[in-house]
From TrEMBL:
Origin species: Priestia filamentosa
Pfam families noted in UniProt: HTH_1 (PF00126), LysR_substrate (PF03466)
Example of a GO MF term: DNA-binding transcription factor activity
Gene3D superfamilies tied to this protein: 3.40.190.290, Winged helix-like DNA-binding domain superfamily/Winged helix DNA-binding domain
SUPFAM superfamilies from the UniProt entry: Periplasmic binding protein-like II, Winged helix' DNA-binding domain
Record protein name field: Uncharacterized protein
Assigned keywords, A-Z: DNA-binding, Transcription, Transcription regulation
Family of this protein: Belongs to the LysR transcriptional regulatory family.
Source domain of life: Bacteria
The organism's taxonomic lineage, starting at the top: Bacteria, Bacillati, Bacillota, Bacilli, Bacillales
Length: 285
């Protein structure tokens, strides 16, 4: 089995179509078809179900895809390490949840970019659940997420402690009789959903209704307008309190930790090593 055949096979599995695969790899379609048939013959296994809409992997095909992706990744990582110079360079793709990206990362990213101009850093903002999956699938080199994360393949680095607060549009004590304190504004699949409702229930607070928003900015704007109340981190509340229309109320036993995670078997380039050291200098020193 040739390395080029493995690359073609992976691309064909992803595209599900010979025409699209040929266009993506700049090959003629007949070359793709011939090489895949020879690959199946050399392995003694049927890798594809062929039908009018394209191709679908067989169980043997799915096995080869899984192992093939590992082989291709190892080859890419080896080439990266061999091409590394004396100073950090190359690409880093880092993830972060929305609060961390907005409030805590700008100074870190600015300092890192100035210190290591040859490192091309990109940031992907998403939910903790999606970010963990992206790290596990090698789509991200590492990510800032809400802890804890318990996974045998993941290494964790504590970054900072956060605290949840109730936010409203007035300094008055939280009171369910206040119309603006009767509607909980939150996000779908919010990572703190269980923690919030546990606290509300423990304090006898029963929101009359719940409204969901896709962004924190929308939630904060609606809280300021008096639509309802929400629960978010104290650091984010402080970030948005400059206009006097947002106030927060402390919650008891509402602390959690933001952590940086990466795969234990992930590639530790000079750029990645420099980034983790920058995290430690920014948050842990």
């Amino acid at each position: 089995m040739e390395f080029k055949d493995l690359l073609i096979f992976k691309t064909l599995a992803e595209e599900g179509n010979v025409t699209k695969t040929a266009e993506k790899l700049c090959y003629v379609q007949s070359n793709i078809t011939t090489r895949m048939k020879k690959l199946e013959q050399s392995l003694g296994a049927t890798l594809f179900y062929r039908h009018s809409k394209g191709i679908t992997l067989t169980s043997k095909g799915r096995l080869l895809l899984k192992k093939g992706e590992e082989i291709l990744r190892l080859v890419e990582e080896t080439e990266t390490l061999l091409k590394e110079g004396d100073s950090p360079a190359g690409h880093l793709t880092i993830g972060a949840n929305e609060t961390t990206a907005l409030v805590h990362l700008p100074p870190l990213l600015t300092t890192f970019s100035m210190q290591y101009p040859d490192v091309h850093l990109s940031l992907q903002v998403d939910s903790t659940e999606n970010l963990v999956e992206s790290v596990l699938s090698h789509e991200l080199d590492g990510s800032f997420v809400v802890g804890p994360v318990h996974h045998i393949e993941v290494e964790t680095l504590p970054v900072l402690n956060e605290k949840l607060v109730i936010i409203t549009n007035s300094e008055e004590p939280f009171n369910e009789t206040n119309p603006s304190h009767q509607t909980l504004l939150t996000r779908p699949n919010y990572v703190h959903h269980a923690r919030i409702h546990e606290w509300l229930n423990g304090n006898g607070i029963r929101p009359a209704r719940t409204m969901e928003f896709n962004t924190l900015e929308a939630i904060i704007s609606c809280v300021k307008a008096g639509l309802g109340f929400s629960v978010l981190t104290k650091s984010l509340a402080d970030y948005h309190r400059n206009d006097g229309y947002l106030h927060y109320h402390e919650l008891s036993a509402s602390s959690f930790q933001t952590i940086f995670i990466y795969r234990k078997d992930g590639l530790i380039t000079k750029a990645f090593d420099a980034f983790t050291k920058s995290i430690e200098a920014e948050f842990l020193s």
